[in-house]
Protein 1
Amino acid sequence: MPDRRWLEIPPTAGLPLRASDFLPATAPLASQAAAFLGVPHVGLACSGTACLVTILSAMHALQPGRDTVIVPAYSCPLVVLAIAHCGLHTELCDLQENGFDFDPAMLAASCNERTLAVLPTHLGGRVADVGLAAQIARRHGAYVIEDAAQAFGARMPEASVGLTGDAGFFSLAVGKGLTLYEGGIWISRDPALAEAISQAARKVLQPSWRMELQRCVELAGYAVAYRPSLLRLVYGNALRAELQRGNLAEAVGDVFDEDIPLHTVSRWRQGIGSRALARLPGFIETTRRQAAGRIARLEQIPGVQVIRDSISGAEGVWPVLVLRLRDEERRDKILGELWGSGLGVSRMFIHALHDYAYLRPWLAAGVYPGGAYPNARSFAAQTLTITNSPWLDDEDFARICTVVRRYA
Ligand SMILES: Cc1ncc(COP(=O)(O)O)c(C=O)c1O
């Protein structure tokens, strides 16, 4: 085992690739993914964001009089850019006081005849209360799109996430469990809507050999370098440089270009995903068991809340454990010791969406009243993430617990 000082644990539990994943695939990725999710059909795209663009394009064509999409005020900035790309407006809705679901009163007040869709979000692999959002959205004739970018493999009690709403999408980006370096999968429980999304996909997603070549090289690089002995070189050193400069959004990769790549995924990359997918159920089970034991330990520390699924009986996936501390100061003291230590302690999104200066042009004035989403802001200020990668061994997890206990 190399010296601990040279190791870097990834911030999320991604499924490592094997050399054998690069052999010809045994089954197409779409049919493998459909069987894994328990649906008749899935669509593939070059990212979760591209899936969202495709779904929104289809919905807007069906309901052209509606032009607003409601998203949680704490989510991925790419969601806002995808909505803007479709010529639609983002309206933010605050979170519930002690969770990550929509504040139902604010959602009910925001939904109207202009609302095209509402996006309940399975944040960090946790299962959101889609039923609650759907009840409110459907009263106004709006669609429900489940943002399951971080939740491929998560299940409501009886079926995959993404099937309670009208449509749902998953990200296959780096660090997201199954990865194609960048990729996405969409599903819809409604066959007519699924056909409309497929039609939109044929228009929105064209082959791009330049982008695909880049992704193939990146995926091969990921297969080589996604291991503790090399991650310091390709990820950890850049992370620490950004932290030292105080560039927190850059450190977690929150700053995105508004130019969204939209293209199809080559058979070669799909084949790699298809072979890796065969190992995903076992990986999800291992990480689920590891999470259960570690949550039990963390919850014994006074002042620590571990974010759980919102639906009882649901089984989310566990790329990370999301911890909420009593206040920002305590959270920051913990991060001061552990972020950049190579142990996979990090933050999810740095800000509530209205606090990213570069997103402001896309959040039309008047659409966000006064910019105050207190619960989203405190979620951003009080949470940190601990990787649930199996590479974080019990000894290092105990070191993390010691620091958390010291400051919580
Ligand atoms: C909640 C959420 N939504 C959407 C996305 C976009 O997915 P992708 O990176 O595959 O475009 C992400 C990506 O991290 C995300 O976390």
Protein 2
Amino acid sequence: MSQQHFWNEKFSREGYLYGKRPNAFIESCSNYFDRKKSFLCLGEGEGRNAIYFAKKGFDITALDASDIGLKKLEEFAKYESVHVKTKCIDLNKWNPSKKYGSIVASYLHMHKDDRKPLFEKIENSLERDGVFIGEFFSTKQLNYSSGGPKDIDLLYTVDDFLDNFSMCKKIKVEEILTNLDEGKGHQGKASVIQVVIKKL
Ligand SMILES: C[S@@+](CC[C@H](N)C(=O)[O-])C[C@H]1O[C@@H](n2cnc3c(N)ncnc32)[C@H](O)[C@@H]1O
């Protein structure tokens, strides 16, 4: 099943699967983001991060494989009277043509074989001093039922980040236990990896 098919089915249900508030870790990193620079949300789904930062005055582009997720993002943006540029695309086929000051991703479950090429594209798309900030389920999340895939190849290790991004400073790459409260989709104790990576 393609990512688009899988996520379209999930996002076809009523409501916002991960709620309408931004990911708490990404929100807590707001000081890293520069309003004068373009801001990209990867695997943004129904748009909770994109809308939050658009409301704060950022110039936001959101990419996702799910056209249904992005349609809900656009309805949410309209309701909040903000504009977010959207593009429905499989990130494995993404051919970035622009540079960004900020790139974020929350719970983008890329297959382990697809991470290196995606991370290279992210790194090359960051402006100097630009940041990549995200939160991802770790392989230890298999022990918890708070959300996320039950396939180890879709879960991350700190080495996934440490072994990539050679042109960047890894300000934070940390595996922690946290308590998620993100809609119906993410509830309870969870093992996550939080990253703050800055292009040199
Ligand atoms: C767990 S959801 C998280 C959505 C959103 N980031 C959030 O936290 O609310 C994973 C998202 O990643 C997107 N996704 C997964 N694999 C993708 C790929 N290869 N290309 C583009 N989007 C992808 C899905 O469509 C889905 O919207």
